[in-house]
Amino acid sequence: MIEGPRKDELLEATLAWLEGAQTSADGFHRKVAANALGIVSRELAQWPDAEAAAVARMQAILGHEGDYATLNTALAEALRDGSVNGGDAAVFEHLRRTTLDTLAIDQPRYRHELTELKEVQP
What we know:
Layout: H1 7-20, H2 27-62, H3 68-81, H4 89-106
Helix pairs in contact: 1-2, 2-3, 2-4
């Protein structure tokens, strides 16, 4: 899903910082730490369903099975070599949905015009 930092890295860094924070001037950094923990919490709660849906979409587009990382790499390669058309409605919808799912986890207050699309325009 999010290509970095990983959940374990966010937790480790945040916990280390919280354990070492000494001054009241650390307010900004406490907000950063809270944001990191929020990302981890949302990823744990939301990503399993989003990943399963993305895998199903990519399997339909590519015509074969695999896990998220394998399919995602295969889709990128297929788009690059032209064996999958980037203008295809199913491809656009997959990319749109995956982007919105990622933003819901990483930046939940972000609003974009793609959230308003009801139908994919060919």
